[in-house]
């Protein structure tokens, strides 16, 4: 059901790093660091999340979506779902 | 230097929750959950980060930026810095 | 080569409307309307463009991408291209 | 009421160009150009609109917002309005 197995360890490493970045943000706020530095760090986390998201999206398209199309099974459903998630991605 | 002191505890609570959400993402990937569910969760984290960012941005504008303007000290510098961070925010 | 033929007239109507919105923006600036009203209108145009983009993206995925996958022709190439354009979309 | 007077001609020139870009998009759709080329062009228009938006935002902050703060008149109101428009900007 998941298409990202071959990247799993890489994704987990990235998410661990992102978790560390969020913990770093918590520390920055606790230490009352300069607002703009906090905002810059938030942007860095968003950028890192976007990259993880794009990896998952690529795997999903090359895996689940491609398979659904090849097997002509729930093609439209899976593409609509893909469009929906891309649209939400574009708006966050 | 930081303008968000009065929201500090609230921001820390939110960041703790976001840290938990990222840990949840890690678990989802580890358990090979469905790609679109992972993507939906990534979007949720981005949304939560955006909200924290907007809180910090508001505090910064009402605090640091307002003070710089009132004291006519490095006004342009601080507004350019603000614009820069908003622009980066818009592009992540 | 284009997958949006069946929506062509609808897309053209929307783009005509967007053109009108941009012309409206030009008029607003010429008449020195309030900054925030100009910004709100810019956001409206971006929102309308996003919707057109999502329509084209959906057609593209259901058309060109689906065909490439079914015919097993340049599958990876067309999915990489898709990911690339989605990524750029996410960052504008 | 508007803070962008000194950039007015520049903004109008840019908006004229954006109007031309949208007309170009209309032509591309009419000629059934390749989907990804249409999407790339939509991204270009969004990028150009973002730049106009950032210019207006900068003028607004250096003008209207700064004045409201200096004159201590409706400060909070104008900053809340600013945050609101920035937030919408971030989500389109």
From TrEMBL, chains A, B, C, D:
<dbReference type="Pfam" id="PF02583">
    <property type="entry name" value="Trns_repr_metal"/>
</dbReference>
<keyword id="KW-0175">Coiled coil</keyword>
<dbReference type="GO" id="GO:0045892">
    <property type="term" value="P:negative regulation of DNA-templated transcription"/>
</dbReference>
<keyword id="KW-0238">DNA-binding</keyword>
<protein>
    <submittedName>
        <fullName>DNA-binding FrmR family transcriptional regulator</fullName>
    </submittedName>
</protein>
<dbReference type="GO" id="GO:0046872">
    <property type="term" value="F:metal ion binding"/>
</dbReference>
<dbReference type="InterPro" id="IPR038390">
    <property type="entry name" value="Metal_Tscrpt_repr_sf"/>
</dbReference>
<feature type="coiled-coil region">
    <location>
        <begin position="1"/>
        <end position="28"/>
    </location>
</feature>
<dbReference type="GO" id="GO:0003677">
    <property type="term" value="F:DNA binding"/>
</dbReference>
<dbReference type="InterPro" id="IPR003735">
    <property type="entry name" value="Metal_Tscrpt_repr"/>
</dbReference>
